[in-house]
Amino acid sequence: MRKVFIKTFGCQMNKLDSELVLGRLAGSAYRVVADESEADVILFNTCSVRQHAEDKVYSHLGALKRLKEKRPGVIVGVLGCMAQKEGRSLAKLFGVVDLVCGPRRLAELPSLLEQCNGSGPVVAVDRDRRSSHRAVSFEAGRATGCRPTRHRAYVAVMTGCDNFCSYCVVPYLRGAEVSRPPGDIVEEVRRLADDGCVEITLLGQNVNSYGTGLKPGVTLADLLAMFEPVEGIERVNFVTSHPKDLSRELMNAVASFPKVCEYLHVPPQSGSDRILKLMKRGYTSAHYRELLLMAREIIPGVEIAGDFIVGFPTETEEDFARTLALLKDADFLNCFVFKYSTRPGTAAAELQDDVPLEVKRERNQALLKAQEETSLRKRRALIGSTVEALVEGPSKRDPSRLTGRTRNNCIVHFESAGDLAGRLVKVRITSATPLAVSGDVVEE
Ligand code: SF4
User: Fold this and answer.
1) Which CATH class is domain 149-261?
2) Which residues neighbour 215 within 8 Å (Cβ) at sequence distance 6 or greater?
3) Is the pTM of this model over 0.70?
4) Which site in 135, 149, 260, 437 is 20 to 30 Å from 203, CA atoms measured?
């Protein structure tokens, strides 16, 4: 049996793709190993959303040169978005890459690996974004125990994106938006529940537009209703929501279906209408604020997370002040901030990347600082209350404690002697930091 190692960069969709790839390989004469130095096949599942993510992969590939000299038989594969973007040139760059496989060709991985015989790189990418190739089979891997956590699972409900936000390379790399038939998704979730899964997170680049093109017509709200009867599933989440597609119907569904968690990840990206227009986001900051008000009115206890990009081309101090104001008004539980970097081939790449790196850093820090204050205030407000947490397992920072999450995605740490992973516990909150709350279990 050949030993395979995979390192995943980027988003949840990539994590799921890696899980499914390993599942598929483990079913065909490969054994998964956790240590790169033991592996016969080393795979990097890559991300191209930002230059920084690509730089990390380049650095890993450079570091493999010595290993390839010592063990030329080791197969090195680059999978995912960078593979799609760079194609054959990746193989030439370092001379260590044997396989380049884009995100829509991952289902072919076992046979592509068979073709790697040292006679030159094997390249499988898709130049046509509407090609009929699909990502790795959604079901593969589910039966072979490659899920990182037994009680939680990502479930892809769609692939690709047709939005073409001006800074984003995803629609070019992951292809056209395609929704999975609801019956297939529910069937997969049933199998996951039979295998001990209690929490699912539905994944889509633009999950609110789920169902586009399916016949008969179906919406994400319709899909959410279908998990209510699935025995064993306790919690249903979905990411990522696009503000322009976040409907009242969907908010009503979140409020009315007991299994659907009160948490929305809705990235505004900027608080300046001028920048939002340049980003081709399709909404204004006023509309975004209205959405937050509506969500808080309709969904009791909802928490909202956001993302911002700072330093988009031409962003002035005034534009940034509007972004900072939106972040403060939004009262996010969490917020992720990214410094703009040009992605070749996108519409924004036509604009000059004219905000100096130092200014991007300052704006990044200013947003993070403001969010830290909000995050701490919101978590301190929980002190003295009792929350319900779904236990994930030992805390990463302090393995003697356990970590769980509330329904609205607040991280909770607590002491417990038992292995409670996958169980719901009641925790009385005694302290808070900007990232998490801590407390004592009052009921298991
Ligand atoms: S919605 Fe916009 S940011 Fe999100 S994947 Fe699609 S193009 Fe990229």
Assistant:
1) alpha beta
2) none
3) yes
4) 437
